[in-house]
Write a structure and sequence with these properties.
The chain is α/β, with parallel strands linked by helices. 45% of the residues lie in helices and 23% in strands.
Length: 246
């Protein structure tokens, strides 16, 4: 709307100067149309540079996320730059998903990782965007493309401690190394070690609290299995993977 007013002001100013029948009319109409043109230009400039007529609105959304691997609990990321601040994190919003999702790589986005005792990974997205203060400004600056412009975005990943932070390159190397562990003898040995680890964890928990229910024991066994898996991931590629589980 304001752009149309500006162009109409410019046309009216030209018409007033060129076609007014008298000097008095020319000056009067020229002044009015000139003020309209200059005023609308200043408002457009103020809206673009200073976000005049707008306010910042912050929204927060939390959703469950899942590892991109169905076999391993991975906090997968793609390094961007050398500082580590701009890493892109890859995740799924469903347990089984054809195409994983990823965070944005731009100057407005910040990613944070938090390690928790929960058994469910979550992603909290906090966004601040510019919005028009009311319908008047929304109509006035219609078509300006300033509405919903992003100010900042913070992605907070809350991963269980059983997850392992690993880069895409490291995950590919890990997959290759894991192929060497597929022999029946190795698989049997790993299963025995995993069972011993889980049993030891469950027995320790029962000794500490004999009143644990069957459901609680099953949950502890599942957590112990995930912990063992995370330790194996680090052990297989310990020279490459620097996991953060603390």
């Amino acid at each position: 709307m304001i752009t149309i007013i500006m162009f109409l002001g410019a046309i009216a100013f030209f018409a007033a100067i060129m076609f007014s029948p008298s000097n008095r009319t020319r000056w009067l109409l020229g002044m009015i149309s000139g003020l309209i043109f200059v005023g609308s230009t200043l408002m457009i400039t103020a809206n673009f540079h200073e976000h005049w007529g707008m306010k910042q609105v912050t929204t927060t959304k939390t959703q469950k996320i899942y590892s991109t691997s169905s076999q391993m609990q991975l906090a997968l990321y793609q390094p961007v730059g050398t500082s580590g601040k701009d890493n892109v994190y890859i995740y799924q919003t469903k347990p089984r998903q054809k195409t994983p999702q990823h965070t944005q790589a731009n100057e407005f986005t910040t990613n944070r990782l938090v390690w928790t005792d929960s058994d469910q990974a979550t992603l909290t997205v906090k966004e601040t965007r510019w919005r028009f203060k009311n319908d008047f400004y929304k109509v006035l600056f219609a078509g300006s493309k300033m509405d919903r412009n992003l100010v900042s975005r913070t992605n907070t990943f809350r991963y269980p401690k059983t997850f392992v932070k690993i880069s895409v390159k490291q995950a590919q190397a890990l997959k290759k190394q894991a192929q060497t562990l597929k022999s029946p003898a190795t698989q049997a040995q790993l299963k025995a070690q995993a069972a011993a680890y889980v049993t030891a964890k469950v027995q320790a928990a029962k000794q500490q609290n004999p009143n644990l229910t069957e459901a609680q024991l099953q949950k502890l066994a599942q957590q112990a299995q995930q912990e063992y898996q995370a330790q194996m991931i680090q052990k297989i590629d310990g020279c490459q993977i620097k996991a953060v589980i603390a």
